[in-house]
């Protein structure tokens, strides 16, 4: 697996013609292999932007390009060979096992109704091991806990062998250990990653770049250190934010308080 260049130019989205945009024109560019964090308050437009990136919704204006190709000019199947998404809502599984769910990630790479070949099985085995799912692979997906399901959905996305991985709040439902494991995995994958996160400290730790959205508008794009200033975080999230150095690691840490 290796990443792809992602370029978003003036992409906006509005639900109906006469309504205000939910996402106003937004532009950014990330080189192959970088991790971009999307942060912002509830309703800021994070999931809406992600939907444009994995070709679920067409932008009302602007373009999304992967390695210079507009994703709406390619067949959906071709986009699915490049981009995989892990979403907050998990589809109903109708009695499928964990392994069968993960195998669905191979669909864009198969011809017609062909069943899983040797390469498909090897990829599925690899991601099952990577996400520590060996003990669960024959369980009915619907019997899993929220955190176990989340790991299965990450495994399914990786089975797609994408160049770009989109994750919408991937640490929801995960206990601390599995949060750290999923975040470490994100850092270690040789892919371009776009991840929405509510935890700004987590975002600052794992992301190369951050895009801040507020009320459907891009507020800034840049490195976590340069962008996530006390002023920007306080204004965007309507809190008093303080940035401190944690001893002994000397890493930067944001803390938050309600304004008095
Ligand atoms: N299909 C739609 N029709 C009308 N409004 C919509 C539609 N989809 C999203 N919205 C609105 O757009 C805004 C942004 O929603 P979005 O889900 O992108 O925000 P978010 O930043 O991901 O929020 P959260 O952090 O709460 O998950 C919200 O006010 C939402 O109600």
From TrEMBL:
<dbReference type="Pfam" id="PF00005">
    <property type="entry name" value="ABC_tran"/>
</dbReference>
<keyword id="KW-0067">ATP-binding</keyword>
<dbReference type="GO" id="GO:0005524">
    <property type="term" value="F:ATP binding"/>
</dbReference>
<dbReference type="InterPro" id="IPR017871">
    <property type="entry name" value="ABC_transporter-like_CS"/>
</dbReference>
<protein>
    <submittedName>
        <fullName>Iron complex transport system ATP-binding protein</fullName>
    </submittedName>
</protein>
<dbReference type="GO" id="GO:0016887">
    <property type="term" value="F:ATP hydrolysis activity"/>
</dbReference>
<dbReference type="InterPro" id="IPR003593">
    <property type="entry name" value="AAA+_ATPase"/>
</dbReference>
<comment type="similarity">
    <text>Belongs to the ABC transporter superfamily.</text>
</comment>
<dbReference type="InterPro" id="IPR003439">
    <property type="entry name" value="ABC_transporter-like_ATP-bd"/>
</dbReference>
<dbReference type="InterPro" id="IPR027417">
    <property type="entry name" value="P-loop_NTPase"/>
</dbReference>
<keyword id="KW-0547">Nucleotide-binding</keyword>
<keyword id="KW-0813">Transport</keyword>
<feature type="domain" description="ABC transporter">
    <location>
        <begin position="6"/>
        <end position="240"/>
    </location>
</feature>
């Amino acid at each position: 697996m290796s990443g792809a260049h992602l370029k978003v130019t003036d992409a906006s989205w509005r639900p109906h013609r006469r309504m205000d945009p939910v996402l106003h024109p937004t532009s950014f560019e990330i080189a192959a292999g970088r991790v971009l964090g999307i942060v912002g308050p509830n309703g800021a437009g994070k999931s809406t932007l992600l939907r444009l990136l994995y070709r679920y919704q067409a932008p009302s204006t602007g373009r999304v390009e992967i390695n210079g190709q507009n994703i709406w000019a390619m067949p959906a199947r071709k986009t699915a060979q490049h981009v995989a998404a892990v979403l907050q809502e998990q589809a109903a599984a109708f009695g499928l096992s964990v392994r069968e769910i993960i195998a669905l990630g191979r669909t864009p790479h198969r011809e017609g109704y062909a069943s899983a070949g040797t390469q498909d099985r090897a990829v599925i085995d690899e991601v099952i091991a990577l996400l520590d799912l060996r003990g669960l692979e024959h369980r009915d997906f619907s019997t899993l806990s929220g955190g176990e399901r989340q790991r299965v959905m990450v495994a399914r996305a990786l089975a797609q062998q994408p160049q770009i991985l989109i994750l919408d709040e991937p640490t929801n439902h995960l206990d601390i250990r599995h949060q750290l494991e999923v975040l470490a995995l994100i850092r270690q994958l040789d892919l371009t990653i776009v991840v929405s996160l509510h935890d700004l400290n987590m975002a600052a730790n794992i992301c190369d770049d951050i895009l801040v959205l507020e009320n459907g508008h891009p507020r800034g794009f840049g490195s976590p250190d340069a962008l996530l200033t006390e002023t920007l975080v306080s204004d965007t999230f309507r809190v008093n934010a303080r940035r401190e150095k944690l001893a002994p690691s000397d890493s930067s840490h944001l803390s938050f308080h309600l304004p008095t």
